[in-house]
Amino acid sequence: MRQLYLQKGMVNFVGAKTIVDRNKEKNYVISSVTNNNNQELCVHDNQNNKIASVEIKENLGNREGMLVVENQNLFLLEQVVTTLSLQEQTDLYLVGDWKELSFDLMKGYRKLGKVRPKWMAFGSSSCEITVFEEQYETILVSTVSAIDYFNAKKESEDSQKVLQII
Q1: How far apart are CA 22 and CA 147, in angstroms?
Q2: Model pLDDT, residue 84
Q3: How would you label 30-67 residue by residue, b for 16+ Cβ within 10 Å and e otherwise?
Q4: Where are the beta strands (DSSP E) in the chain?
Q5: 9-56 pLDDT, tens per residue?
Q6: DSSP class per residue in 124-145
Q7: Domain 2-165 classified CATH 1.10.3210?
Q8: Strand order in 92-97's β-sheet?
Q9: What pLDDT, in 10s, does the model give residues 94-116?
Q10: Contacts of residue 108, Cβ cutoff 8 Å, sequence gap at least 6
Q11: SS3 label, residue 119
Q12: C-alpha R_g of the chain
């Protein structure tokens, strides 16, 4: 079993954000790149190898992103106006409240990992990623990164709408 931590909600980060272990050592780096008006979220391991990507396409206020790990489409994230949805593309599925980053990654009856909200000592909202089966760590980390990005983007847009009303 291994535990990792991600600081939630940094949608407009400059450079990259990291996923760290219990010793605060960097294990993964998440970066955002814009290509031809589309955004790509990339997850790299600590040797800077790209292990996953989410190509995010936006059209008329709607957004969708396909999570691709090891050339396999895993999850399709969609945001239509204010509704966020996730569709499984393989035999892996999420159980729980994935929008709040509180879920289990399952394959059949096996729990491969879990994600739970966690408040860290430095006062920021984070999530704890617990990996039960090591070969699914990349998938779990990438899934959490993609969901967090979509959640943060939606929250950012919602707060901008409130400011425009005021």
Answers
A1: 22
A2: 63
A3: bebeeeeeebebbbbbeeeeebbbbebeeeeeebbbbb
A4: 2-7, 16-21, 26-35, 38-45, 50-59, 62-69, 72-80, 83-88, 92-97, 102-107, 110-119, 125-131
A5: 655 555 678 899 989 899 999 988 877 767 788 889 989 998 888 877
A6: -EEEEEEESSGGGHHHHHHHHH
A7: no
A8: 83-88, 72-80, 62-69, 50-59, 38-45, 26-35, 16-21, 2-7, 125-131, 110-119, 102-107, 92-97
A9: 888 888 889 999 998 999 999 99
A10: 91
A11: strand
A12: 15
CA-CA distance, 102 to 156, in Å (whole number)? Answer: 20
d(C-alpha 135, C-alpha 138), whole Å: 7
Instruction: Give this prediction's pTM.
Output: 0.81
Q: How far apart are CA 76 and CA 5, in angstroms?
A: 23
Segments making up each domain of the chain, as ranges? 2-165
Q: Which pLDDT value is given to residue 153? A: 74
Give the C-alpha separation, 60 to 148, whole Å. Answer: 22
